[in-house]
Amino acid sequence: MSDFKKIDAYLEKNFDHSLEELKRYVSQPSISAQNLGLKECALMVKEMLEKRGFKSQIMDTDGAPVVFGERKGKSSRTLLIYNHYDVQPPEPLELWESPPFEPEIRAGKMYGRGVSDDKSHLTSRLFALDAILDAEGDLPCNIKFIVEGEEETSSVHLHDFIRDNLSLLKADACIWEFGGVDHRDMPMQYLGLRGICYVELSVESLGTDVHSGLGGSIFPNAAWRLVWALNSLKGPDERILIPGFYDDVIPPSARDRELMDKLPDVADEYKTRYGVKDFIKGLKGGTDLKIEEVFTPTCTICGLTSGYQGPGSKTVQPARASAKVDFRLVPAQKPEDILKKLRHHFDAQGFSDVQIDYLGGEPAARTDPDDPFIKIVVDTSTEIYETPMEIVPMVGGSGPSYPFVHDLGLPVATMGLGYPDTRAHAPNENIRLDLYLKHAKHMARVVKEFAK
Amino acid sequence: MSDFKKIDAYLEKNFDHSLEELKRYVSQPSISAQNLGLKECALMVKEMLEKRGFKSQIMDTDGAPVVFGERKGKSSRTLLIYNHYDVQPPEPLELWESPPFEPEIRAGKMYGRGVSDDKSHLTSRLFALDAILDAEGDLPCNIKFIVEGEEETSSVHLHDFIRDNLSLLKADACIWEFGGVDHRDMPMQYLGLRGICYVELSVESLGTDVHSGLGGSIFPNAAWRLVWALNSLKGPDERILIPGFYDDVIPPSARDRELMDKLPDVADEYKTRYGVKDFIKGLKGGTDLKIEEVFTPTCTICGLTSGYQGPGSKTVQPARASAKVDFRLVPAQKPEDILKKLRHHFDAQGFSDVQIDYLGGEPAARTDPDDPFIKIVVDTSTEIYETPMEIVPMVGGSGPSYPFVHDLGLPVATMGLGYPDTRAHAPNENIRLDLYLKHAKHMARVVKEFAK
After folding, report:
1. Which one of A141, A164, B135, B269 is most buried, by most CB atoms within 10 A?
2. What is the pLDDT of residues B245-256, one digit of tens each?
3. Is B182 buried (19+), middle (13-18) or exposed (0-12) by CB count in 10 A?
4. Helix axes B15-27, B5-13, angle to 10 degrees
5. How large is the ipTM?
6. Which residues of B are less than 8 Å from A419 in CB distance?
7. Mind telling me how many Å the CA of B137 is from chain A's nearest CA?
């Protein structure tokens, strides 16, 4: 692959320059859950694309705007690159070692909210295109960028946006927003994402908080109502109790089990990294743990709020209580269906006082491991990572891959610079700078191979 | 009672002056749950007592200091007056119509945190003594004040303080920190307080918060563990499930039922005032509701905290979750015993991962309705309130009356200026100024009658 000499030399020489662009990008807060800095960040992305000669536009949705950019290339093939400019909320702030929106490089890593998920993915990809343009003066194929601003809040409006812009987004293949290496530094090809159905459950039992000495014996307590309603969803055996919840679940195939079996055991790594003493459901490790991690749907409490939460004691009976709950869905569960079953379940269990607010969702989606585009991404990685890419048929996280796979009909490949201690969604989110450079090099190769 | 002409005239003439003192007192934040402003407030109380010629001292405890003041009077009888200078946390701040620590008078009411519970009780009592001293130059009996700073956090150190200072606190009768009128403006004589056992329950299931797409299927979730542990304490039928919890409960006597029966029905008032749609346990009103309200022990969730609680969605599996829970106790339950049974219950139910932090407690205590001191307080009230005082054998709230009743051996009478919309522990806590004046007048009469 001697034709990458010039490209690789460019990437090594201009590395710091790209990191500066990433720093500027991370410094711009863009928290979709809090509607903070989104327009400013979208404008920044548009300018970043235009700098590379992309015809770009900021397109309105009913939520955060989508940035779309397109640049023609030599071949007629079109690669669609999906990224998002929004990030998770940075809380709890006190656990960050440096401020989340003041990116800092320490010991070969850059720290900041969104630096991994997924701002570095966008800048390193642009960096790869810079290198190709520098070496060849033009792109080898058409490239389209779709950069949305609601990925961290379940991409509520992206599905409609894609359905409304099928011809604009028409392509032959898609690169997903994230990817990375596992704990052995092995690059991973993730070919499926679970779906999600995110809800806020809330109860209002009184007009006002009341002294607990008065209300405790005779008034309904919102926090208790919420606890009992949650308890009706799942017991300590982890089986989800909503009738019909598992009806549409497609269990993993023999091929899936075979691919999962090849993947390394993660038990010890998880225990060390996340401070897990024992896995749930009696899981010990091995293929069982790996299968359970990604091929089962979940019901996770992401947050609980009620009454007094400060230091010491306050004797109050809270009027209101709420929980954030996410259901991770597997093929072929549908969020709308789960939502309906959840409402029905609460009503049947005597919890019609529990209000359900749907905060977003998406069905699961998968790409065929035998697709030729997947082969390109897998094969080009070996030179960069000195180890073959490993194929993972399904991962536990979610993303809006459904409309890419099912509406645009694209194979979706993952590649990127995540790594196990990247702390996406958590304090001290970070990237490894060595992986940043590798991703840019890999990206340049994928673009050129795909263009042929 | 013509001998009160001069006293009453003084109280009416100097009313605004006393309200100014109350305003200064309320302006000093003194939040025991947050250890905020306690020393400053104790010093303020000491100065207020010294202004009236009380020999006063600030006495250390293992927590907030106690202010003790004593002034001799003409007779050998000694009246002990109990108050507290601490207040509840003011949160949620956004629901206050004026800042909680900037007391404001609007339409015949004064608003501020602690204005009712119980700062106005102290200043109006001092105001009554001012009037007696002005009229007679001396107090008719010995008066002792004990003003503590941890009442709102279950008076953790008061019991020991009283046991360590039995001779200092020696008296013949005690006036309790609060009292007031009901919704008909009828003054109430509350003769019993429930006990309390306040705990914080917490679970830590992981070393760090984890992306819910990763942890949801295989890692233990602290919020779920907490929900299940709480659910094991009480189900929707409201029966507390801790083995032995009800063992020591002394049910209300026939006399209690008779006294409760005489009290007015509260059902409609509660529904209107607190926005209750239906009472729990199928209660509709009448004596059943009144008995249930105060003679049954409770298990109340006062607060819930876990994971993400901001706007929108965050897909995180929380590492930590906690709940504030208060148990209201009836005679003869003991907080230490309940604590032991709670730990045992959690362990037996598989929740040894739930940590219990004891934030304070006190057993219930009652005073005999036939005590002569109670008769003085009841009889002197008629002239002021134009209606006889009503005797309530037990109330739902708690307070550290146990050491007063059982260690000091005192009859404890309640009187004060609370009223149903006083919003103690809630936003917009307030007092009615007309009741402030009435309480001062009543107090002057009690002191003089008691001295005989």
Report:
1. A141
2. 999 999 999 989
3. middle
4. 60
5. 0.79
6. none
7. 41
Out of 3.30.70.360, 3.40.50.300, 1.10.1040.10, 3.40.1010.10, the CATH code matching B194-359 is 3.30.70.360
| % of chain B exceeding 90 in pLDDT | 90
Which of B293, B324, B333, B398 is the best residue to mutate to test the A interface, defined by the most A CB atoms within 10 Å of its own CB?
Answer: B324
- Write down the pTM of the prediction: 0.79
Report the percent of chain A where pLDDT is more than 90: 90
* CA–CA distance, A107 with A232 (Å, rounded to integer): 48
pLDDT in tens, A256-297: 999 999 988 989 989 999 999 999 999 999 999 999 999 999
Buried b (16+ CB within 10 A) or exposed e, A34-51: bbebbeebbebbbebbee
A207 vs B: CB within 8 A: yes
Domain ranges for chain B, please list them. 2-191+367-451, 194-359
Strand partners of residue A175: A81, A413
Tell the CATH superfamily of the B2-191+367-451 domain. Zn peptidases (3.40.630.10)
B32 → closest Cβ in A218, A312, A395: A312
In angstroms, the separation between the Cα of residue A283 and the nearest Cα of chain B is 8
Q: Thinking of the domain A195-362, which architecture would CATH place it in?
A: 2-Layer Sandwich (3.30)
Encoding tokens for residue A194? 């679970």
